[in-house]
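Sample entry (445 residues):
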Amino acid sequence: MEAIKTDIKALFLEKEDCDAGTVQRLRDGLRQGAGQYKALREVVETMRQRVEVASGAVVKKWQLKLGVANYFLGRLRDAAEFLRQAETPLAHFYLGRALASLSDLDDAHKAFEKAEKMGYTASQVQLQRAGLYRAQRHLKQAHDLLHKLEELSSHSAEYHFQLGYLRLEEGDRLAAIKHFEKAIEMDPHHVGALFQLGCANDLNGNDEEAINLYERCVAQHPVHVGPLLNLGILYEDHNRYDDAVRCFQLIVDADPTNERARLFFKDAYAAQSMFIDEDAERRYDRFSQVLEIPVTDFELSVRSRNCLKKMNIRTLGDLTRVTEAQLLASKNFGETSLLEIKEMLEDKGLRLGQALEEGARYDPRFRAQQPALSEQEQAVLSKPVSELNLSVRARKCMNRLGISTLGELCSRTADELLEVKNFGQTSLLEVRDKLRTLQIKLRGD
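Predicted structure, serialized as tokens:
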């Protein structure tokens, strides 16, 4: 039997008061399809007209309804404007949430304090204030407040979300994930917990589960930028460019000033018309894996192993960057060892000097020798690329290219990075900006 849809229009236009029950019915109603979201937008326009001709106490009732409705539409600044004028416990509570989302944390604290003083459920207010303390890096205050609310652990999804996020900030990722999972167990629609679990799976390369969690997250209202952005990037990784475009378009529609989303939208839109030879890409990935096979994995003679070790040749890829003459010039390396090496390479479809002949097509790490560097420059370039704190998309590019240090990154040109699947101008700008802070740059910049 199909569930009866919530009448959004009647909820706001016919029901006189707006309370916590109204909010819950609105939440449930917005999960019933895109048509409900459209209905709420239409209701907001009607209420705007009514508040303009209203007077007395009725005005504040319309302002409260407009504030709540705009909050769930994701129009946080409009929501805050109306909620400030409504002056009810519910208004101050959602004003605090809107201001927190806008990163106006000090005013959010004030709004939550007013909500609690006016009688809004104290525990719910305090959970939100714990989140504000965490966002302000006041971790001890957040910890102390959550400790006082420990009795909520048996039934509050929000409690487990806030505690999980605090554990995440403290560096205990495993404990954080357990609390996020507990939050979802108690409330399968908890947006914050869904997003954090999506991020955890995203970082671990569990793309299908991450997509599922992000999709569940953006099915709730209000929809936040983070889940849409991450979901769009994952859609691109799986060649779902139409879906990616829709994600980025939603962000741009809500906030035309979001330059990052605008650039991502352009990249995804352009990719819709690009032909991607997936078979060729898979062949290249397999070839790259072969190049990384250590020479120690093969049954070589002691003489051959010693000579390769002296020449600092560790992988099959290293062997494709030397010639027969270079090997024979090594002490104690003769024709017998040469034949042994050549047979090993032929078995894998490789040959000596291949990378020298074919260049980056076969071994993208092959580069011309760099000029001598100072000790300080060497120290910077030896740092792991993870110190740049790149976005998910940019990090995946680094992984695809096997880049682990800043030096390896700086040996690349912008064009080489742009050749990587789903690495567009947005990611390139991000990488350049991060490198600029360290006073280094890509090759050719």
